[in-house]
Amino acid sequence: MAEQAEQRDPRSEQRVPQWAMAIDLDRCTGCEACVVACASENNVPTAGEEEAARGRAKHWIRVDRYYEGEFPDIRVKFRPVLCQQCDSAPCEPVCPVYATYQNAEGLNVQVYNRCIGTRYCAANCPYTVRFFNWFTPEWAEPLGLQLNPDVSVRPGGVAEKCTFCAQRIKRAKLDAAEEERELADGDVQPACVSSCPAEAMVFGDMGDGDSKVSKAIASGRSGQLLADLGTRPRVFYLEKAD
Amino acid sequence: MSAHSSAQTPARSFSQVRNELLDRMEGFSPAYVAAVAACAAVVAWALFAWGYQIAFGIGHAGIRRPVYWGFYIVNFVFWIGISHAGTLISAILRLTGAGWRKPVTRAAEAITVFCLMIGALFPLIHIGRTAYFYWMLPYPNDRLLWPNFRSPLVWDLTAIMTYLTGSVIYLYLPLVPDLAEIADRSTGRKRRIYRALSLGWTGSDRQWQALERAMKLMAAMILAIAVSVHSVVAYDFAMSVAPTWHSTIFAPYFVVGAIFSGIAALVLVMAALRKAMRLQDYLRESHFANLSKLLLLMSLVWLYFTFSEHLTTWYGNFPREINVLNVREHGFYGLLFWTMVVCNFVIPLVLIGISRLRCIPTIVVSSVAVLVGMWLERFLIVVPTLSTPPLPSAWGTYMPSWIELSITAGTFAAMALLYLLFVKAFPIIAIWEYDEGIPAR
Amino acid sequence: MDRRNFVKLVGTASGGAVTGACGKKSEQIIPLLVSEEEIEPGVEQWHPSICGDCGAGCGTTARVMAAEREIEVDGERFRQQVAAIKKLEGNPADPVSGGRLCARGHAALQSLYNPDRLRGPMKRVGERGEGRFEPISWERALEEVSESLARSAASDPGKILYLTRPQASSRSATVARFLESLGAPPARSVGTGDFAAEIEASRRAFGWAGIPVYEIQDSTLVLSIGADFLGGWVSPVLYSRRYGHMRQGRSELRGRLIHAESRFSLTAWNANRWLPVWPGQELALALGIGHVLVSEHASPSVAEASEEVLATFESVDLLQVSEASGISIEAMRETAAALAQATAPVVVAGASMVRENSADALTAACALNVLLGRVGEPGGVMPPAASGTGLEDARPAAQGWEARLAEAEIVFVDGVNPAYNAPSAGTALTEAGTVVSFSPFVDDTAAYADLILPDHDALEKGRALVPDVSPVPAVSAVESFVSPLYDTRSTEDVLVAVAEAIGKPIEAMDPASVLGGLHQQMGSAATEQAAFVREQLRQGGWRGERRGSQGAGQTALGSFREAGKRGGLQFQAYASVQFGEGAGANRPWLQEMPDPGSSAMWGTAVEVDPGTAAVLGVTNGSMVRVESASGSLEAPVYVHPAAIPGVVSMALGQGHANYGRYASGRGANPMAVVGDSREAATGAIVHGPVEVTLAMSESRGRLIQLSRQDRDEAPHRV
Ligand code: SF4
Ligand code: SF4
Ligand code: SF4
Ligand code: SF4
Ligand code: SF4
Q1: Less packed terminus of chain B by CB within 10 Å, N or C?
Q2: Residue C258 sits in the same domain as residue C205
Q3: Angle A176-A182-A188 (CA atoms, 0-180°, nearest 5)?
Q4: What is the pLDDT of residues C181-211, one digit of tens each?
């Protein structure tokens, strides 16, 4: 499962964190707080009714739901789906301009400025978590006052997706550096994770065996989405107990 | 059918042939002018649509999540496919020394060049930031940024550029003696232009030998390039992890489809030339008959590949692939699917396979059917797979907008327009090939 | 801009109040992100705030950073530096949110920065309800209000009507003072989030004042009757946190959940077992389960129950309640047995959808806890924690405003939207005297107002508020920390000014005085008061100690109004995860958030079971006409795989006549079909059921879904 090789920073010789997320489906209620939290943190534009009707709504994280059985013996199987930050990401090699790549910390990075909008990555992402800016986004005055200055507003014509809240990782590192301490487990809280009312999501360094996320991954209920494709996702799902 | 079809062609001297073919290049009939104007108008409209898309956002096209690739990629594959008409067919015929090829080759080679020019435009139309398309090119820059050579799109770019260069050379080489001929017969600026274009051709033995060697070499090379180009286009899909795209059969399947549609396009162009330029004596029934047999053969090969592809997917019964198959074979796409089978197989089989029915009009009808069928095939490869990604929650559909429809129409008009202009600038049948047998040297 | 200037900027905005709470993180301001390595975050500060989007009153923190906006002064455009709120998070120190937020809580930002906010006071120029207004100056507006109010106060103060939200807050205390000084009756709450039935049932079954607190995190089996505590209800964030803990927070112990509701809500999604009770028959179900407990499970706790409680359940006819509720005797027996055998069961009694007899149904459900001996026990049900501020006394009640509305000489509408939530209110508002709205938007009700005196956004205001449910005694209290964007005025200030103008001056209740009063009441030394207030404001409020166990007080169940099972198609409205009772509809994030059940965006669907849909010949997106004796609506269908056959449900939220660009004229309001019935004991607005007919409709409309596929497998295989 988690056999990612240990990475070390070539300059400092420090171990590079290996970011991962665990989502406990036995806690998750399907409330979609994560969905709105992500939009709010990451300047994800609202498509509007017409564009949403044309399949242009952007949800860096969504809650998939499937009904099983018939009334009255009906259940619903649901799962929040975001970019799985695959270690062997199908979206990466196909990009002709290196606009998406895997960084040392295991993030599948999207470089908006480099992207030319082929949408090859989106066609090849098995989780369909990549989105495309069909237009240059606009915010009716004064909605734009809310925009997060740590996150770029993506121009029209480029691909985008969940970044594992890369800006929050950066901020946590700067804070730790300023306070002259090492990054501690739990210092990085992506917006969806910190919002989740059921406390279903855990984020952290899976390279650190003592981290909460490592323990969640080792819990025995852990699995990966479409694991058979060999994409080696960094998002682990703790399956529902029944 | 014309009276010529049954009559024996009268023997002609080289000078007769030459005068006749060169005369065909002169003068602009009202019908010609009208055709040029009509095509130009459609092309202009398509350019407007493209401009609109660039200026106001690619969102005005119909592509959407999850069908991130739509008409543009369909057209890309289609036109690159047709481009195989020319060079490949002409090269095969040239290398196998098929004597009947003489009046066919140039028409075919021109198709290749034009189709490639049109096909290569589609990636530019398709991408979100057209202005930065050159970032796919490996050019030196002080940020030391290189394209990603692992991306099939970069292979595509390389393959298509190579094919285009090769095809232009391959079209140009056998044009050289004819260009010199035209220069000799004209005066003034026209003479200077054609003289320059003929690259100092004098018709010396040494030059003829060099030309022949070059043509043989190019024919051999272009064959390999052509096969590789459509293989690479197939790899755009086959290298993915998308259900039914990730398939070992795709490269040969695409090449076969390419040759198949290429022949159909060639038949169509030849029929149009024969009629419009009164070339009945050159493009004879036998040419159509030979090409139609090739077309029928390819139809069978295509059917074999299609059958294999669907059989293995169906029998393998992987849910994700079966989902794609369901989408492709039922509902609206199912209608398109069965239309494709009828166009690509049933119509050619009946109209060409039954010898009593085989004549130029039925061959032309078959070719039109094959072009429609092959366009649908490309569509049915691109769209249903993207409509049906592995997670059912993301399933969706796709409808093209006026922009995609306009641009698609525009490319067909562009093809016709390029051809219309070409036949007035260059002899569409290689004059000197009729000179070969005459011991003038 | 350097840090000093930035702090000054924020300091100015906050009136210098809580700069002590600001955490400076970094000194760089480099805005755009490319890849993770290149991100250089700017300066940020976090300020405590309170979510005002539902009564749960989650404690939040707001991330404040520099931003620029364009303003127009005398026709010239300027760029102005402002301290903008970039993000809301839960306040980890808050006992309710525990640092978490629900979807609506995040979207509160889009109320603050909503493009349709009123820029200043408005005076009506069109007909009532038409929604045409022109700007008016604050001086003029206050004069007009004061004149009308003075007239009413002089003639008949009984005809002064103040409609507001049911929360216990500094605001409601100020309103109470205002009305008291006028000699007017107390304010009334309007809306579906007033939990009047829960409060009434708590009084009857436990003798408590307020909404009970369920310790589900420590229980082993939760039976919820009618409470969609994960999707909405009194405090979704608190109960989601507790639910998560109940499932996976304890080693080797995983709690189970049985949920009874007439709709497949989020709580039903997550239940081990869903009991699809026929709408309006929650009482029958509770009685049935109680009957089995009493007659078949003679545990010590049952023996301890009072005569009245035992008698109530003993007399139940099991066959009859089973038939009425649609829940088999078998299922009732299994549920009762599970409850009886569980080490720490609890019955959560809630009316996510209010019925005509909800107070009775909830009383019976609450009484199950008495039978199980779970009152005041760990993992059981706890009394509401009194904050000690006395703000609870000012909690407006739901009862009896409708009759007074049309006759009122002056009506104040503050934070509620009766024209949307109670369909008949529109007509009454047309007939009422002066109508004054404090709404920041021209909403359905404000459209009837003579004057709109827009309040600041909740995020621009200092407030103190007692959460509807809190595990510990608590009051949230915050000061404002950003300057108001527009020429709006705090409603508290407006009330003070108006009272002053008519010669009946009052003092506003503000967060500092609430905390000051609390400090005094706790009997601490007066010298420390200023420090106490400052410290609590820095933390976003005061939180007391967790209480020990406490049993029930006086129990008086009273007699129950059983509703006979109604036949035909039953229609019910519900408060959705996105829109609550409708206020969320003008936030684009919530409009585009897919409905958890149907995946619908930018619209709400009529949820029909597959059998009924087949009979009607409708599929997803078909337009239908729903008609009841009260009214009708047209909306697209969602064929809900888990809808109870014969039960048609629809979310509240859409169908606003007026509510800005994102909500106006979009979709349909289910209350038009539900009509205007009231809960018998409390006067709370009822959500159905009503009998309806369904027919295909020719009208145009559509169902936009993020995921059209609602099954994991393909519809057919080759
Ligand atoms: S989930 Fe998709 S976008 Fe994310 S890394 Fe994997 S393939 Fe790429
Ligand atoms: S859309 Fe952008 S990131 Fe994706 S493959 Fe194309 S260039 Fe790369
Ligand atoms: S990790 Fe960040 S970017 Fe990714 S889904 Fe969560 S909030 Fe969005
Ligand atoms: S916020 Fe948490 S509980 Fe809600 S849907 Fe997202 S992961 Fe699930
Ligand atoms: S539950 Fe949601 S809407 Fe209600 S106060 Fe909390 S965050 Fe706000």
Answers
A1: C
A2: yes
A3: 60
A4: 999 999 999 876 789 999 999 999 999 989 9
